[in-house]
What does this fold into?
Amino acid sequence: MLAPLFLLWPMSVAITYVVAINLADAPHDQALTTALAVLSDQIKTEPNGSYAINLSNAAQIALRTQSESGIFWKITDSKNDVIAGDPALPTPAKIAQNTIKPVVHFSDYTSGGFRLRLAYKWFTPASFSLNESSRDLQPVFIIVAEGIESRTVLANDIIKGVIIPQFLVLPVAALLIWFGLSRGIAPINALQKRLRARRPDDLSEIDMQSTPSEITPLVSAMNDLLVRLSRNIQTQRRFVADAAHQLKTPLAGLRMQAELALKSAPNEEIVLNLKQIVRGTENATRLINQLLLLATAEKRDQIKLQPINLQALAEATTQQWVAQALAQHIDLGFEAHDEKPIGVMGQPVLIAELLNNLVDNALNYVGSSGRVTVSVHQTGGHALLTVEDNGPGIPNLERERVFDRFYRVLGTGTQGSGLGLAIVKEIAQRHHADITIEDTQPNQVPPGMKITIRFNII
It folds into this structure.
């Protein structure tokens, strides 16, 4: 609203200027017309047919007072010969004679840097038709003029009288508009802040009591959308959980049958095929468990946080991966920078699974003879759980997407479901923790990778 206001203000100034010029011209042009009338009354014809101009005192006073700068005048005949007045006064182009109803004409003239406003007309003396000897005389041409300066001064005064108040009113109007709109949209800003402060998984309806009446239909439509989204998400979660539960039993039976068949396999080819089936069932079971864990992590209301010793939990979880790390010839270590316990509010099973996914991810990508280090330390009011490795790392452009479900970086050559880091992100969000990814060895090949989870200390 302020932009059009400031755009219209120059237009207002221009219109004011034009109106001021017209207002200044009107009284001055009327004064010139009056001067023409005064001079017309003073023109008489002599018995010999000549003209006589004898200005009375009243006429002279009238001509002097019609304008601040005075009235200049001249009377000429049809041959442009000066009958009376100021010979130096310019003579405009002759206009058509109108002896029935003389018309006053106006024009501007500049001479030697001095600007004049001219008024002129043809005039027939009243006694012209009474004198037989003057039948052949033509009407006279009367010219009056005044300086433009007085008009300019008046126009400037009018403009100042209108523009100066606008300079005072415009800022006040801008402040009033700003104040009014700020007050008017304050409830909308409050609603926006409430929506931005919501958790990503909060699909509860928006409170309608504090909503401005103007946007009540919009908020009502948003509430309907939130209800539908909540129903769809609940349906999806139930489907994933039910499907995972239903698949676990047949997969466990399939794996058991394959392992039993391995004991009595007649040849090496069948043994290889059965082992492949066992590995496939293990991967499928791992995927199902991850889906169940992801569904559990998404149910915020069902997760009860409790005080835990993050340092002890991380050390115990890391020890469970030592055997696999040795089998892959990977150096897996744990570092504790603080001797005393580091307490955080969390769900032990979920935090342990978070670390399991981080360690599993590092072991899969670091390669043989690699190095993986799990560490826990305290800084400020936060506890940092870090998993470092000297593997290929994650490109900067991929670091945001690796937390998406089922997304995997191309060209790594490793097997996986693409759910590990998605589960890490979901569990971290449920514990109000932040995740950062950095290079362990910047500007080196391979750069390595360091994933840090920052928890709040209790």
